[in-house]
Amino acid sequence: MLYKKSIRDVRVGATTLKIETFENLDDTIDALCEQLGPEASQDPLSEDLCPYFGVVWPAAIGLSKKLLRMKDEIRGLSVLEIGCGLAIPSFIAHQLGANITASDFHGDVENFLKINQSLNNAHFPYERMNWRAGENHWKKFDWVIGSDILYESRHPHEVAEGLIKFVKPGGKIILADPGRSYLQNFVTSMNSLGYQEVLESFSTDEQDIYVFEF
């Protein structure tokens, strides 16, 4: 569908990115529902249709700040961002010298990413995948990162199992979350799978974000 979009400046540390986003998320959801119609068999908020990807979420900023703090570690590493949306952390990781691959399941993410890569003269690989659905043909990465992905009750253990499929032995999983109700269930699942966490909090303009390093 044709989204109403705008380009905004997104500042993370000393870096300012130009990012194309939706003008208004609620209007975008309303337009999608209108296009699908009341008889549509597809849920407009299902994972393959939901337009939540097209806005800058505080957790993405919190994760990006964490990566900036780890700039001396990340350079030269292979890094996978899952559920990337507008991929703000991927842009920061790329700037810091990581070999970043962004990934998401929504069909429109790639188009937004191409435009934003052009706006910022930054180019890195993208793969469309549903990483919770058992897609395990990928290589493993030094780090796996993600932000604000624990938004359904069925997700925490699936997220934990999905993440560890893509991380090398001795690698790191870094996850940012605004404090959703399923966060502790996720941490418990990671602990049960042998991963221990280090927690930091990062302030954004909207709220504090919890960032876990496993």
Write a concise synopsis of the structure shown:
This protein has helices spanning 25-36, 58-69, 71-74, 88-95, 109-120, 155-164, 183-192; strands spanning 5-12, 15-22, 78-81, 99-104, 126-128, 141-147, 167-177, 198-203, 208-213.
Task: Describe this entry's structure for a reader.
With 214 residues, the chain is an alpha/beta fold. 32% of the residues lie in helices and 28% in strands. A seven-stranded mixed beta sheet has the order 5-4-3-6-7-9-8, covered by helices on one side. β1 and β2 (15-22) form a beta hairpin. α2 packs parallel to α4 (88-95). The chain starts with a strand and ends with a strand.
Question: Which features characterize this protein?
Answer:
214 residues, alpha/beta, seven-stranded mixed sheet, two-stranded antiparallel sheet, 7 helices, 32% helix, 28% strand, globular
Query: How are helices and strands ordered from N to C?
Result: EEHHHEHEHEEHEHEE
Low-confidence stretches: none
- How far is the first residue's CA from the last residue's CA? 38 Å
Indicate the overall shape: globular
Percent strand equals 25-35%
Main sheet: strand order:
5-4-3-6-7-9-8
Q: What is the overall pLDDT average?
A: 87
Q: Structural class of the helices, strands and pairings?
A: alpha/beta
Count helical runs: 7
Biggest β-sheet description = 7 strands, mixed
Extended strand count: 9
Rg over alpha carbons: 17 Å
Q: What percent of residues adopt helix (DSSP H or I)?
A: 25-40%
